[in-house]
Amino acid sequence: MNTPPLDDSDAPRQPLTDSAGSGRDTEPGPISSQASQPVDAANSHSGTPSAAKPPRSTRPKYERELSNFVSLTCDLALGRTEWKSRPYYIEYSTNSACNLRCIMCSQVEDPPVVSTPLELQEPFLEEIFQLATVLTPSATSEPLLNNLNRLLPLMEEHGVFMDVITNAVLLTPELTERLIPRMQRLTLSIDSHKKDVFEKLRAPAEFEQVVEHARFATRLCRENSIPVIFHMVLAIDCMDGLEDYVDFVAEMSGTQITVLELLHNSPNFSELDPFASMSDAQVAERLEAMRARAQLRGVSVLFEVHAPMGARYDYGFQSVRAHTGSALEMMHGELAIEHAGFCPMVMGYFKVEPDGTSYPCCRAPRELMLGNVFEQGVEGVWNGAPMRELRQRMFDRDYPECCKGCVVLDAPRYQSEAREREAKQLESESKPSTSE
């Protein structure tokens, strides 16, 4: 079936599910701003810079990307706060629409859908794609509700790859095949192998449909050397049978799981948070059982959970398609390890909401709001006073309160520790056995 993108040129309504005849035809409200003002192609932001397309460099994209990476290494090595490098990873969706109302997400409160005015979308993307390598089209939303008819050709033209994080309801086989050429990675948000738990958490998705889509997409991605991650939010309902979840992923040919600690961004946080009813030791015991099963099944697992439970264990292997996007992402990963303690997202990640509000990371705490790209321009935000101050605090290890204990900040350490474990294991295996 055809993908039902939100056409941001007007104020359309979209069904919440992709399942014909399900009887679930609840629809989000018309596209509006956060102040419930209508936003459409005819509206412009007050004070918006000219929407004319920026001039394009004649240098090949890969040269610009490599130069940008070298500039980043210099920015970090020299302790600069005004950076010559520009973000390589962009999180931006033209709208904030989602087809689900997951009870652990802010979308459960049915917020108004915000959309970037049409005349601002392409000029912004043209500018940011000059150096950007990866785009995740999300805004606490479903990325497949972007207008892919406009977005994919622009990404192809600029050599940008898509990091798709989806609930898989709209991820039909036909759409998966269409996305493959520009896909960097696929993350499937499936929190449980149990139908009742999954459908409670991710209403109104249908478990069988999501599994069907996920199974096809996982197989096709593996055939094309595209990494696939199964993504679960650690809710109390998921705590029983974490080992069985690993089996579920392994039987779908998955080789990587990310377990995310529940964020305090929905009114259901208290009742869903496993740490509210279980001790850290009890949660750690369950996670250890999951890790042991993952090792047995050859599935890598990343626990993005607060210390000391956060860790990464590499037990599975995924081949990665060779292109500039995958190479640069690995290079950025290595740089993050070398500069552990400086948030890897602050290094090269740029989150822009549909209304232009910008942040240095995916979690987007209001305390870290940097400005608005549609009012100040990309450069005005990327090297504005809030971002320069945040960089200095990262260099000084004087973290804002919202950054303290963040698993994203700790992620390079997890990677470093995983490598140390692997090195010790290899050393142990290489030692000759001694007989009594």
Identify the notable features of this structure and list them briefly.
alpha/beta; eleven-stranded mixed beta sheet; 14 helices; 11 strands
Helix amount? 25-40%
Oligomer type: single chain
**Poorly predicted tracts of residues:** 7-50
**What is the H-and-E element order?**
HEHEHEHEHHEHEHHEEHHEEEHHH
Mean pLDDT: 87
Q: Taking Cα atoms only, what radius of gyration do you get, to the nearest Å?
A: 22 Å
- Taking the alpha carbons of the first and last residues, their distance comes to 68 Å
Structural class: alpha/beta
* Share of β-strand residues: 5-15%
Strand order of the largest sheet: 8-7-6-5-4-3-2-1-9-10-11
Sheet with the most strands, sense and barrel status: 11 strands, mixed
Give the overall form. globular
Number of helix segments?
14
Number of strands: 11
How is this fold's topology laid out?
Layout: H1 61-77, E1 89-92, H2 118-128, E2 134-136, H3 148-158, E3 161-166, H4 173-179, E4 183-189, H5 195-201, H6 207-223, E5 228-234, H7 242-251, E6 256-261, H8 269-272, H9 280-297, E7 300-304, E8 311-313, H10 324-338, H11 344-348, E9 349-352, E10 357-359, E11 371-372, H12 373-382, H13 385-396, H14 407-430
Parallel strand pairs: 1-2, 1-9, 2-3, 3-4, 4-5, 5-6, 6-7
Antiparallel strand pairs: 7-8, 9-10, 10-11
Helix pairs in contact: 1-10, 7-9
